[in-house]
Amino acid sequence: MAIEKVLLVGAILTTTIFVGAVILDSKDVIDLPDHWDIESVCLSSHTNDITHYHANVEIIIDGDNYLIPNNLGIQDENCPDGMRGIHTHDDTGKLHIETPSEMDATLGSFFNIWGESFDEDEILGNHENSDYEIVMYVNGVLNSEYEQYSLQNNDNIEIRYQQK
What we know:
Blueprint: H1 2-25, H2 27-30, E1 42-43, E2 51-61, E3 64-66, E4 74-76, E5 79-84, E6 86-87, E7 94-99, H3 107-114, E8 118-119, E9 122-123, E10 126-127, E11 132-138, E12 141-142, E13 155-163
Parallel strand pairs: 2-13
Antiparallel strand pairs: 1-5, 2-3, 2-7, 4-5, 6-7, 8-9, 9-10, 11-12, 11-13
């Protein structure tokens, strides 16, 4: 009976260690969140007690400028009486990042708030393939962080879906 208990405990420990290792090795769990904290922010008004800065985003799909909608993240289904942590007021591509405290604002969180796709393989439903690529410039410098890029004050971001 004692040997059976030892074998059972050993099997449970081995399974637990294996499952833990798989979870820790999973890139989706560690590196690519589906949700960033800033996406939960819902501010009722502009006050002096918030962090407030801006970044500009330009999206070019096969040579054509793609307008980012005005009032994106304002009084939406997740924040019906206010504005999300990242939002727009017009269609110029100027993002307003406003949070009650210092908070990471990634480009991916903006696209999640918008409800659109963006990463190194896809932008607004356009997929990288043998003919097209997705490139991103931050302040004129090629950048490969894509959705993981943390927006900084006065950033100028250009995302291109273009022929190779």
